[in-house]
């Protein structure tokens, strides 16, 4: 059974381009410095003109088995609102929720 999840909060930076970190409900992934890692990023997509791209958090292990977080490109839209609508729909798919559950398990194991 999947539960409806929403965007919990966002943090906008302009350094030098637009970047918005998107945090979702029930998501609590922290990096080694104790800083919460966003589930998504929305950034300006200069490669496609005046569009915005959605990047999703992905876990990756280093050669010495350390857990890293990277944000590969998923898709792009004309507006930030379209990006957020996509994120809402994406996080409420059962396969996406399974991915987030797996990320939480991996993060907990990495803390041991």
Short recap of the structure:
This protein has 112 residues and is α+β, with helices and mostly antiparallel strands. 26% of the residues lie in helices and 36% in strands.
Topology:
Layout: E1 7-14, E2 18-24, E3 40-45, E4 51-56, E5 58-61, E6 67-70, E7 73-77, H1 80-91, H2 94-110
Antiparallel strand pairs: 1-2, 2-3, 3-4, 4-7, 5-6
Describe this structure in words.
With about 110 residues, the chain is of the alpha+beta class. It has one domain. The protein contains 2 helices and 7 strands; from the N terminus they run βββββββαα. The chain has helices spanning about 80-90, 95-110; strands at about 5-15, 20-25, 40-45, 50-55, 60, 65-70, 75. Strands 1-2-3-4-7 form a 5-stranded antiparallel β-sheet, with helices on one face. It is globular. The N and C termini lie far apart (about 30 Å). The model has no long low-confidence stretch (mean pLDDT about 90).
